[in-house]
């Protein structure tokens, strides 16, 4: 079953849960915005196709940045929340090299954006403070390209729509009615991405080189939710 089908079924299941509970739970919808401090890491870059290069040499394999996300959700009165969240696009730059061609590094650009279905469980500590855990599943849309040695030696563009998942935890504080502030952490796996084959002539006169990586993210976020 494709990733898109899995996510579609998951979203339908969440919608069904919400519809079934709406008659018995006087909950509330909310909108949310989050500022996200993220560190993307490119794992398994050594699996890139680059025959005849000697040993793989890792280069820059992480990228730290600040981005944002927006969400629409529903909070039940039994401690559960469900939401759909979109994370803004961000392009990372990673590098790698080889022992045979030390001056001909790969520069790998990966653009990532996500649409996730998240489920939260809140545990009240006081009337205003609660702890929560979260899980998410969704689609990560990845675009992968770059160059080798010089900018003129380009790789073709590769695109993937991957199944993405997340695990997280945080603390929430509600200073006034309808407004809640969140501070949380989550780990996100966005799956594997590959560039297209090399569009430049290599030493073997073949199209047998491409860049690949498994993209993951560690994120600390600060957000606000407003109920309506």
Detailed description of the structure:
- The chain is mainly beta and 228 residues long.
- The protein has one domain: Porin, CATH 2.40.160.
- The chain is 9% helix and 66% strand.
- It has 1 helix and 9 strands; from the N terminus they run H-E-E-E-E-E-E-E-E-E.
- It has one helix at residues 3-22, and strands spanning 28-43, 56-58, 62-75, 80-98, 106-124, 129-148, 150-176, 179-194, 212-227.
- Strands 1-3-4-5-6-7-8-9 form an 8-stranded antiparallel beta barrel.
- The longest helix is centred in the first third of the chain and has 20 residues, at 3-22.
- The radius of gyration is 21 Å and the shape is elongated.
Which characteristics define this entry?
Porin; 228 residues; mainly beta; disordered N terminus; 9 strands; elongated; 66% strand
Helix content: under 10%
- Provide the CATH topology: Porin
Spatially, the strands of the biggest sheet line up as 1-3-4-5-6-7-8-9
Radius of gyration: 21 Å
Task: State the distance separating the first and last CA atoms.
Answer: 37 Å
């Amino acid at each position: 079953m494709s990733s898109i089908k899995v996510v579609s079924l998951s979203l339908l299941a969440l919608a069904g849960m919400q519809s079934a509970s709406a008659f018995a739970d006087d909950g509330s919808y909310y909108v949310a915005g989050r500022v996200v401090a993220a560190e993307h890491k490119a794992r398994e870059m050594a699996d890139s196709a680059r025959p005849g290069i000697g040993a793989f040499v890792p280069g820059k394999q992480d990228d730290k940045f600040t981005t944002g996300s927006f969400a629409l959700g529903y909070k039940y009165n039994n401690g559960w929340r469900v939401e759909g969240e979109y994370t803004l696009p961000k392009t990372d730059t990673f590098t790698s090299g080889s022992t045979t061609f030390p001056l001909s590094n790969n520069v790998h650009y990966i653009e990532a954006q996500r649409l996730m279905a998240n489920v939260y469980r809140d545990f009240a500590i006081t009337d205003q403070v609660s702890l929560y855990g979260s899980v998410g599943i969704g689609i990560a849309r990845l675009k992968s390209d770059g160059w080798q040695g010089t900018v003129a030696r380009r790789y073709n563009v590769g695109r993937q729509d991957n199944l993405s998942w997340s695990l997280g935890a945080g603390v929430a504080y509600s200073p006034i009615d309808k407004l809640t502030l969140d501070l949380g952490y989550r780990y996100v796996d966005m799956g594997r991405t590959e560039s297209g084959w090399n569009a430049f002539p290599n030493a073997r006169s073949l199209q047998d080189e491409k860049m690949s990586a498994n993209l993951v993210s560690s994120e600390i976020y600060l957000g606000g939710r407003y109920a309506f």
